[in-house]
Design brief:
transmembrane; Glycosyltransferase; binds 2-acetamido-2-deoxy-beta-D-glucopyranose; about 30% helix; eight-stranded antiparallel sheet; 23 strands; 17 helices; lyase activity; Beta-galactosidase, Chain A, domain 5
Length: about 775
């Protein structure tokens, strides 16, 4: 299927080959992105949308049985065409939205994921879309600043110029009154700001190799909240509190804040960049409240400790500027992003020329590097957790450039596949938590998934916004300006349950039984390269996670100790990084041969297929009996002592059971390993896992001679080389293993979650089929 790509005005072949079921141009779910940002003609605004809104209003009114909505929709449909009818219909849509409210109003307390109510109330949750409207109660006005030929150095004349220009602040109260999400987030931001108000300014803490990054992000988080609260309430107590935070982070408060020569720790430049961003926001959002002296002070501190060192990285090749040299990862996004936000904030007031010079470097550099941290299938080149840091830096930078100067200069579309990273985020998010392979990153503070709102808007992917708006981290100031309240429908409506990411860097699969059921089955598995992820990866080809019954049965151990010696130094075969349990192959849910790490140069291949099952409008999905998906990989190149290692995983029995199959021919001992928080009861070729009041039965089918389950602790073998500093403990984690001598094996492990109401006879025992023979019907 050829898909029209509006970016290059060409019909592009699907990157997944012809007939790819995920490249659906009509569903509005996974479509090629539109150029940032399509403008709708007035004719369309007042013509066709009236019909859409009338239909939506009628449907919603009917569903909710609201007399008011019914009355309004009928008055809208009887209204004459043009503005009058449009206004009535838009007001009807607005009241219908208020009536629905926020859909997922609770989060799972353990995993903080949204709890979606079970409903077959299908009519309210239709295809993701943005309803065209000019009604100021439900839609943002257009930005009056539209330079014909934008340049980085020509900024709008009104303040704020960053992310939230005045026209947006003016529109916001009306939108809040008519949008339950904005209303809830506004309340939460005020609540959070009040909490921070009562705390002392952030206390300087130098955290080894992680520097003062936590400090920087916490200061930024607070300043955003204080500045937001001031602008919405005009209460100057927020300005005073923001100033106290600024003074403190400048070392001019009552407690010391770092050494005078380098307060923002430029050696770990993320810190200096995030402080620059925080000071930029303070400067710009509270511009009218600062005295000239305060402005001079903010500028001088930002230039001295952030921008000038940043400029040196470009002009003098300062050693701490390594992140600008071919780094496609979060460092490039965060460093260029912070320097850009800071520079844009003071451009024009800055008499040193530093801001102007920096903008001549950062924008192009981020376009060439940061923008390419998304590979062609949408995966973030580092890890699922580092996606948050990278996209937050990227989105802040793109948004600040758009609002301040009228263009993003290619940051959003120099990489024509960038838009797919929203899709990556949705698929890497399971019913309980992320497929959290590799390093997890530092504390997030000001880092969220709210780039999804900007990307939804800029790439016209409404499902991104619909997915994010129910998440626990949605309530923060950026969301108030990036969220387009005309978004409507349900992200799950029409969403394929499975997706495969095939770029050789990652090669991973996401397969589930529902998008909205917290108890759903979810399997995610990866192959990919063991290098090339900014040294945030593990030696983990074949690694998987498994969710079912609201808990994670096979999980990840996460980051090692970032302060551990040589943790980030190298990803060569003999690197110290690979001596830490959480990073070595032993610490992964995969096959271990000869008790040895995988080859860092592994280059696996993968195959897969899916029934293409999509969820419908309802949060209750009935899975057809033949609905399945599978993914197989040839992992041989990852092993030194094996002639062949292949691994496959498939969903069985209408996505209620999972088969994991390994075909191994090894010249040294083999171990099948899986890390679990469950309590494990062993019984030969079967094991009972119990966790969170639920049960998972695991069994070895057609067990080769000698293949039984046993368990071990999540610690290194005594024969392993000793890492520079001791490993972290993994309390509560048990490793379920199958331990075998050298030989040729077909290991088939069946996972049967004990679903409520399902009896033993409802489970299937699949036939034994070689991986090379797997097909959609091979296990029927
Ligand atoms: C935002 O939230 C604050 C605190 O709850 C409230 O006082 C204020 O009225 C809200 N703003 C709007 C526009 O509703
Ligand atoms: C903001 O407030 C909400 C609601 O009380 C809370 O759940 C959340 O943790 C707070 N967020 C931060 C970053 O403090
Ligand atoms: C902090 O103090 C230094 C030294 O007096 C001054 O140069 C700088 O402008 C001050 N910055 C702030 C934000 O107060
Ligand atoms: C910095 O390094 C780059 C690439 O190695 C080189 O092209 C450039 O001339 C250097 N600049 C300075 C000021 O040394
Ligand atoms: C940048 O990285 C790419 C991909 O790893 C590599 O092919 C290229 O040679 C690198 N360029 C420089 C200047 O290091
Ligand atoms: C154990 O539970 C913790 C907390 O939910 C989670 O972070 C970790 O990934 C789990 N470990 C495994 C092996 O599932
Ligand atoms: C696997 O497929 C091959 C080629 O289609 C076929 O010859 C062979 O019989 C199949 N083996 C099994 C066990 O199904």
């Amino acid at each position: 299927m050829a898909a029209y790509n509006p970016v290059n005005n060409q019909n592009n072949a699907s990157p997944y080959g012809s007939g790819d079921p995920y490249y659906n141009e009509s569903s509005g779910f996974i479509t090629p992105h539109a150029p940032p940002k399509k403008r709708i003609s007035n004719w369309i605004k007042f013509g066709i949308p009236v019909l859409i809104i009338v239909i939506v209003a009628a449907v919603v009114g009917g569903v909710l049985g609201s007399r008011k909505s019914n009355n309004e929709s009928s008055s809208a449909s009887s209204g004459s065409s043009g503005t009058a009818g449009g206004a009535a219909a838009a007001s009807s849509a607005a009241s219908a939205k208020l009536a629905i409210g926020r859909f997922a109003t609770a989060t799972d307390s353990k995993y903080m994921v949204p709890v979606y109510p079970s409903t077959t109330n299908t009519a309210a949750f239709t295809s993701p879309t943005f309803i065209a409207s000019t009604n100021s109660k439900i839609a943002w006005p257009e930005d009056p600043f539209k330079p014909a030929s934008p340049t980085v150095l020509s900024v709008r004349t009104d303040r704020p110029r960053l992310i939230a220009p005045t026209y947006k602040w003016d529109a916001l109260p009306n939108l809040i009154a008519n949008d339950p999400y904005l209303k809830g987030w506004n309340d939460t931001i005020f609540g959070n700001a009040t909490e921070y108000f009562n705390l002392p300014p952030v206390v300087y803490f130098m955290d080894g190799d992680s520097g003062i990054l936590d400090n920087a992000r916490e200061v930024k988080m607070r300043i955003k909240a204080f500045a937001y609260a001031y602008r919405m309430s005009k209460d100057t107590k927020w300005v005073d509190r923001a100033w106290a935070e600024v003074l403190n982070a400048a070392g001019n408060g009552t407690t010391p804040f770092g050494p005078d020569v380098d307060k923002w720790n430029t050696g770990h430049f993320l810190d200096a960049a995030e402080f620059s961003s925080a000071f930029g926001i303070a400067y710009d959002w509270l511009y009218d409240m600062w005295t000239d002296d305060q402005k001079v002070a903010i500028r001088s501190t930002m230039i001295r400790y952030g921008l000038q060192p940043g400029l040196s990285t470009y002009t003098e090749n300062a050693s701490f500027g390594w992140w600008r040299n071919n780094i496609t990862g979060n460092w490039n996004c965060v460093c260029n992003g912070g320097l850009t936000v800071g520079s844009l904030a003071i451009l024009g007031d800055d008499t040193t020329g530093v801001a102007r010079q920096l903008l001549g470097f950062t924008v192009d550099n981020a376009k060439d590097n940061c923008a390419f941290a998304v590979v062609d299938d949408g995966s973030w080149a580092e890890t699922a957790n580092y996606w948050y840091f990278g996209t937050t830096g990227h989105a802040e930078m793109a948004s600040a450039l758009l609002t301040a100067t009228g263009s993003h200069y290619g940051l959003l579309d120099a990489n024509t596949n960038f838009w797919k990273t929203g899709q990556y985020h949705m698929y890497v998010f399971g019913p309980t938590s992320l497929f959290d392979y590799g390093d997890h990153g530092p504390n997030k503070f000001s880092t969220t998934a709210n780039s999804m709102f900007l990307y939804a808007d800029q790439f016209e992917q409404p499902s991104f916004a619909l997915h994010q708006r129910d998440q626990h981290d949605a309530a923060e100031p950026w969301s108030m300006f990036w969220y387009d309240p005309t978004v409507s429908g349900a992200f799950w409506d029409g969403a394929p349950l499975d997706h495969f990411f095939d770029n050789s860097l990652d090669q991973w699969a996401s397969m589930r039984s529902s998008w909205t059921d917290g108890d759903a089955l979810f399997v995610a598995i990866k192959a990919g390269r063991n290098q090339g992820h900014q040294t945030h990866n593990d030696l983990d080809a074949g690694d998987f996670v498994l969710d079912a019954l609201g808990t994670r049965w096979a999980g990840e151990l996460g980051s090692g100790d970032y302060r551990a010696t040589a943790y980030f130094l190298s990803e060569a075969q003999d690197a110290d990084r690979w001596k830490y349990y959480r990073k070595m192959t032993e610490g992964q849910n995969t096959i271990l041969v000869d008790r040895a790490n995988q080859n860092v140069l592994a280059a696996p291949s993968v195959k897969h297929d899916t029934s293409g099952t999509t969820q419908g409008s309802s949060t209750v999905i009935n899975i057809p009996g033949d609905s399945t998906a599978y993914w197989t990989s040839d992992l041989t190149s990852a092993y030194f002592q094996a002639t062949s290692v292949k691994r496959g995983v498939r969903l069985l029995n209408a996505r209620r059971q999972v088969l994991l199959q390994d075909e191994i021919n090894a010249q040294a001992g083999v171990q099948w390993r899986m890390h679990t928080n469950a309590t494990v009861t062993l019984d030969g070729t079967s094991a009972k896992l119990e966790l969170d009041g639920q049960t998972m039965e695991v069994s070895i089918l057609n067990a080769p001679s000698g293949a039984t389950f046993s368990t071990t602790d999540a610690v290194r073998f005594s024969t392993d080389p000793t890492p520079p500093v001791p490993d972290q403990a993994n309390p509560g984690v048990t490793v379920l293993i199958i331990d075998l001598p050298a030989g040729t094996y077909n290991l088939q492990v069946l996972f049967n979650p004990q679903w409520p109401g399902m009896s033993a006879s409802d489970f299937v025992t699949p036939p034994s089929v070689p991986l090379d023979n797997w097909s959609l019907t091979s296990h029927n």
